Structure formats: C-alpha cells, structure tokens
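Why should sequence recovery work at all? Because a backbone constrains its sequence more than one might expect. Tight turns favour small or flexible residues, buried strands favour hydrophobic ones, and helices have their own preferences. The token representation captures these environments compactly. In the example below, the structure is given first.
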C-alpha cells in the first residue's frame, strides 16, 4: 500500500515538472499592449538620446582635458629640450675643466712626487724666493682641488639631470597613455549607444505598425488580436484579412544564407537552438506535415545526411488580395496548432530544429504565391503552368533581414 502511494506521489511530481518545463504558448497581444510597447520603446529611445547627449557633453569635457594634456606634453617636451641643452653644455664644461686640471698637473706635478716639490722649493736663491715658491705650490694645489670639486659637482648634477630627464619622459608617456585610454573609452561608449538606437527605433516602428493595422481591422483596444482577426474572418465569410506588414519568424537570431540557385529560401539560426517560430504575418495553417529528402534528387546530389523526416508548417496569407504561402522547415516540434486554424503573427507554430535534410539547428523559410501541397500548383513546372519552384518569392522583398537582429 505504502509503495503504491509513493508511486502515485512520484508520478504527480514528474507530471508537475513536465508541465513547468514544456514550452508554453502565450496569449496573443492586444492593441493596448502594442501601444504600451510603443510607449516603452519610445521612452527607452529618449533615454538613449539623453545618454548620448550626456555622453557628447562628456566628450567635450574630455576633449578639453585632452587639449590640456597636449599642452602639458608640449611644455614637457620644451623642458626636456632645454634640459638636454643644459646637459650638453655641462658636458662641454666638464671636458674643459678636465683639460684644465690635466694642464695644471702636467705643468707642475705637485701631487705625484716629492722630488719635484723639493727641487722647486729648494731651488730658491734666498728665503724670500723660497717663501714665494712655497706659496705658488700651495695656490696651485688649492686651485687644482677646486677644479676637481667643480668637476665632481658637474658630474653629479649631470647625473641628477639625467634622472630628471628620465622622469619627464616617463611622465610624458603616462600622459600619452591616459590620452589614448580616454579616446578609446569615448569611442566605445559612443559606438555602443549609437548602434543600439536603430534597433529600438525598429521596435517602435513595428509596434506602431501593429497598432495601425489592428485598429484598421476594427479590433478593440483590449481585444485579443488573434480572436479579433478570427472574428473578422468569420464575419467576411471565412476569408483571411489582408495582412499589412510582415515580421521576422524568430525573435532574435542571425542570417545563415539567402536564396541562390538550388536554395529556395532563407536560412537563419539563433544562439537559442530551440527558439520559438512565429508566422511572418497573420493567416491560416495551410499544412502541417513531415517531408524527407531520401528520395529527393537535389538533396542526394548535395550529399546531405538526412536524419529523419523534416517537420514543416505552411501558413496561408491574404496579401494585397492574393494568397501567398510561407513554409517553416526543419522544426524540432510543432506548436499547439491544427490545419485550418487562424493564427496571428504572435502565435507560436513550432520550434527551430534540424529535422530532415539539415546539417544543424536552423530555420528554413520559403515564400511562394502557391503551394504544391494543395496550394494551387505542382512542385515542378508543367507544360501548362509555372510550378511551385518558379513561383517562389524572395523573403527579403517582404521582410528586412539584417545580418543579425534582436527583435522581430
């Protein structure tokens, strides 16, 4: 009995964990919520502009500081130049005094031998001459000592000056490094602010377009836009409301590759490998199916490894009075959808994956004005009409796809 209770409790816990970890679909937005987004993004943009203005003021202050530093650098360079001149002059004086000292010693080697001293002194003719000669020797000795002291002082001063010169050079280098650091900080800060502003403006424009579009349909301010569009579609005999604009199918990501010969749509991916996928515009779920490239000549020719059936959703849109079809390929799983269901652009129709003929997680988006799965055309061209491949539409002609994006 106890074992059965433990099993029941464990099962309930697992179910609760599964409930909270499964991807949850969200209710479609209302016009009021889009208007709130407009207000939010507008306030954010204004804050960015204020920060940019503040940064520009800071730039001016820093430029003033840079000018002051440059003045200090110029003054330091002048001082270094003058100091070097003094050092050069000191070197000349040192050389002169050295030569003078040598001449004195050469002239009278009073410090190198007692015989010279005695020979000079005792060579006097009388006592007066001896006193005179002794005085001369003393004066020469004192003068030579004085010359040597001056020489030592000049050498010491020269060494001190060289230390001072090195200190000035270090100070100059420090000032230059500070200057470069300030310049780099200014450039990085300004670049960050300016690069973030276009994305915010794009979000404002998108939210404003949504407000205008749903108001034009007659949706109430607090009415779920998906229910509103469904209500309008039913009132008009089940036909789809005409879409006013298109959005990117994933909220953030980057382009992998576009259309070219043999590649019929746009490939995009994201750092979130299981990111939700949305319709590019409101419409109805035309087809939910799996497809495989095992029998597809093009895929076999490319040598791709097919890891199973590709999960695909096709959405049908009313665009300027004609139907177009958007296909979302390589999904890992489907959203809470069924064929014939009316969906808004905010309805999750699946999650990005790598099913089918794929080498990694990405979303392949195709758009055409017909679809070969009961959409009014065959896959290939026929004798009587152009086929699906010939009626493809470049997604970039309807949707802006930059290299990367952070909003739809």
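From this structural description, the recovered sequence reads:
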């Amino acid at each position: 009995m106890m074992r059965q209770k433990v099993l029941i409790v464990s099962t309930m816990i697992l179910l609760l964990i599964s409930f909270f970890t499964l991807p949850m679909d969200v209710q479609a937005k209302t016009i009021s919520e889009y208007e709130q987004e407009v207000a939010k993004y507008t306030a954010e943009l204004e804050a960015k502009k204020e920060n940019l203005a503040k940064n520009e003021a800071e730039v001016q202050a820093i430029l003033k500081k840079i000018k002051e530093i440059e003045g200090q650098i110029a003054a330091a360079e002048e001082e270094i130049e003058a100091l070097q001149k003094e050092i050069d002059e000191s070197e000349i004086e040192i050389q002169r005094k050295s030569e003078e000292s040598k001449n004195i010693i050469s002239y009278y080697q009073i410090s190198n031998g007692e015989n010279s001293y005695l020979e000079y002194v005792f060579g006097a003719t009388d006592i007066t001459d001896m006193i005179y000669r002794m005085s001369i020797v003393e004066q020469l000795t004192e003068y030579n000592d004085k010359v040597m002291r001056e020489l030592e002082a000049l050498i010491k001063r020269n060494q001190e000056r060289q230390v001072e010169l090195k200190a000035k050079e270090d100070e100059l280098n420090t000032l230059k490094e500070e200057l470069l650091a300030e310049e780099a900080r200014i450039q990085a800060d300004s670049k960050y602010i300016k690069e973030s502003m276009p994305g915010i403006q794009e979000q404002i424009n998108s939210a404003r377009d949504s407000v205008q579009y749903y108001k034009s349909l007659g949706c109430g301010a607090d009415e779920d836009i998906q229910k509103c569009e469904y209500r309008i579609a039913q009132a008009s005999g089940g036909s789809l409301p005409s879409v006013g604009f298109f959005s990117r199918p994933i909220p953030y990501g980057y382009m992998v590759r576009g259309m070219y010969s043999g590649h019929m749509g746009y490939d995009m991916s994201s750092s979130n490998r299981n990111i939700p996928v949305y319709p590019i515009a409101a419409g109805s779920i035309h087809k939910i199916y799996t497809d495989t490239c095992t029998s597809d000549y093009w895929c076999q020719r490319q040598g791709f490894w097919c890891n199973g059936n590709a999960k695909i959703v096709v959405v049908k849109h009313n665009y300027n009075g004609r139907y177009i079809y958007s296909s979302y390929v390589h999904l890992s799983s489907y959203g809470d959808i069924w064929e014939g269901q009316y969906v808004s652009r905010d309805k999750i129709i699946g999650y990005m994956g790598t099913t089918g003929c794929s080498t990694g997680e990405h979303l392949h988006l195709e758009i055409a004005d017909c679809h070969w799965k009961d959409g009014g055309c065959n896959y290939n061209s026929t004798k009587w009409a152009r086929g699906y491949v010939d009626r493809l539409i470049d997604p970039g002609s309807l949707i802006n796809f930059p290299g990367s994006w952070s909003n739809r």
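A few observations help interpret the result. The longest strand covers residues 310-319.
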